[in-house]
Write a structure and sequence with these properties.
single chain; 573 residues; alpha+beta; nine-stranded antiparallel sheet
């Protein structure tokens, strides 16, 4: 009867952990990217990835993107990293795709699109202009003249427009090898009287991010103001604030809209004082605007100019850091929401990225990372096993104390503490390796979730994307049964191996004194198998390899501490 009660209690506790975790994980710890492939009849089929398109939105567009692009005169953009065009009507950068990043792993997958013109699906674009009074200013319908038809590295283009009173407005655009456009806005006053103007730059976005914003990753409005990153504002906040929006003043910094992997942002020249704001300007229409400096008086015959940076691209760590250091854009690498533990996550990313560049396979890099972590923790594991051996020897004495003081819990605790002190044993020492592994595991989780360097990285055989769950689902017999199980039941091969290796570890460990604890520990490997099923295959690989190494360590250390393996004899106190 007692054993049945313990088993029922263990099952209830395990169910609470399993279903409670499933309810909370989507909000606080999103598990992985959407699956990159699906196994159908034992064969892998690439899946589309709608979250890759940062401009995806729900409403049906009235016109196709191609038709909208044909309606206006344009300057072509072509670099090793991006392709697209600039709309000469309104001076808008509104057509941009990323050459190095695809929406899915399928061979014919289109490139990820970041900017799209107004009137097309998911319009998002950047625009440059001026505010002022008592003079004609270029606007949304202004058609600009250009001195070239191609914007490429080393080939800038200048847009120009002259109003009836003699003021000439120019936007000189240049682009680098990656994702940065520099816009130099100038006004030449050819009139007879001084004029007051103030340049601005804005990003207009239709629709919210396809990537959810959660406790561990921020999507939506983002910026760095006076050196501090702001991850607090989301699209719902802008909807609630209406036309008031959220306003900031800052020296330097930047602002824009971010998805998990993609960013479109504006930044002023270094040390420029700016007024910045986010606003909702309609149903699912959002604006990020920046005005550098104060209003400037341009005397007749004079020219004034200001520069603004426009970034629209992938949040590659090295590229963000390059712009932060070389262009002096404060906190630009904070476009990746590393969180509170960035001091630990960044070294893990650096090590993993370095290993990947050395071996060329991200799965192998994860295995090497696991070997390094286990190697560094080996001395701690030795002390853990020594402590477990001592605890094993003390079990008869502990049991005797439990029998002697079974009706006096306070006295029992006092006697056990005295016993541990006398025998120089720390009952918590066995938990140390697990505690030390937690920040490493969390850092790897964040790296797999947030860094684009890990997106769509294959390992071997059926694992084509280590940032997505293992697609080889056993529940539907690897796709031979025509149904898709819920995510926490989608048991792939890796999470099953994880559960098996955890159970082997449990069987190698000494039995717990408390029968309830023993029953819970016997079930927990299978609970964790379900918990880990929807997580990234890279995390599953790390944990499985770590378990295999721990099992090997246990086997070896048993030879050094026979007392841990051998059943203890009876003892008295």
């Amino acid at each position: 009867m007692e054993n049945q009660r313990n088993m029922i209690l263990a099952i209830v506790l395990s169910a609470i952990v399993l279903f409670g975790w499933s309810a909370l994980s989507d909000r606080f710890l999103p598990t992985a990217n959407p699956p990159a492939t699906k196994v159908v009849d034992g064969k892998q089929v690439p899946l589309p990835n709608p979250t890759a398109d940062a401009t995806a939105d729900k409403p049906r567009a009235l016109r196709s993107r191609a038709a909208v692009l044909r309606e206006t005169p344009r300057v072509v953009i072509d670099t090793p990293s991006v392709a697209g065009s600039i709309n000469l009507k309104g001076a808008r950068v509104d057509d941009l795709v990323l050459k190095r990043h695809r929406e899915s792993i399928a061979k014919n997958s289109p490139p990820v699109r970041l900017l799209s013109p107004e009137g097309a699906p998911g319009a998002i674009y950047a625009q440059f202009g001026w505010a002022g009074q008592a003079l004609a200013l270029p606007g949304n319908d202004t058609v600009w003249q250009t001195d070239g038809q191609l914007l490429a590295p080393g080939k800038p283009v200048t847009l120009s427009w002259t109003n009836p009173t003699g003021q000439t407005f120019r936007i000189k655009l240049s682009i680098d090898q990656n994702y940065m456009i520099t816009a130099e806005q100038s006004v030449a006053n050819g009139g007879a009287a001084p004029v007051a103007v103030r340049p601005f730059a804005l990003i207009k976005r239709t629709g919210v991010s396809a990537d959810p914003s959660s406790w561990t990753q921020h999507t939506g409005p983002i910026g760095v103001f006076d050196g501090t990153a702001n991850y607090k504002i989301d699209f719902k906040d802008l909807d609630s604030a209406g036309s008031q929006g959220e306003s900031f003043t800052s020296t330097g910094g930047w602002l824009g809209f971010t998805d998990k992997y993609w960013l479109t942002a504006l930044a002023p020249a270094p040390n420029t004082r700016i007024d910045a704001s986010f606003r909702a300007i309609g149903d699912k229409l959002y604006l990020a605007a920046m005005t550098p400096g104060d209003q400037t008086i341009v005397a007749p015959g004079k020219i004034v100019s200001r520069s603004t940076y426009l970034f629209s691209g992938a949040k590659e760590v090295s590229v963000l850091q390059h712009y932060e250091n070389d262009l002096n854009i404060a906190g630009f690498d904070k476009a990746i929401d590393w969180g509170w533990f960035s001091f630990f996550e960044r070294p893990i990313f650096w090590l993993l990225d370095t290993l990947f560049k050395a071996v060329g396979n991200f799965g192998v890099a994860i295995i090497l990372l696991t070997l390094i972590v286990r190697g560094l923790m080996f001395p701690i594991a030795q002390r853990q096993f020594a402590s477990m051996a001592a605890m094993r020897v003390l079990q008869p004495k502990v049991k005797a104390l439990q029998e002697r003081h079974k009706d006096d819990k306070v006295k029992l605790q006092q006697e056990m503490l005295e016993l541990y002190k006398r025998e120089k044993v720390n009952p918590l020492a066995g938990c140390l390796p697990i505690v030390l592994q937690i920040p490493i595991f969390y850092a790897l989780y964040k790296v797999l979730m947030l860094t684009i360097e890990m997106r769509h990285q294959p390992f071997v055989l059926w694992i084509k994307d280590l940032s997505a769950p293992d697609p080889a689902t056993v529940i539907n017999l690897f796709g031979y049964l025509n149904f898709t199980p819920p995510h926490f039941l989608a048991l792939g091969v890796l999470p099953i191996l994880l559960g098996i290796t955890m159970y082997i570890q449990f069987k190698l460990n000494p039995a717990q004194m408390d029968p309830v604890q023993q029953q819970v520990f016997s079930i927990m490997p299978w609970v964790f198998m379900f918990i880990m099923a929807p997580f990234a295959a890279g995390l599953q690989l790390y944990w499985t390899v770590s378990n295999l190494l721990a099992i090997a360590q246990q086997k070896w250390l048993y030879s050094r501490y026979p007392a841990l393996k051998n059943a203890p004899g009876t003892a008295t106190t």
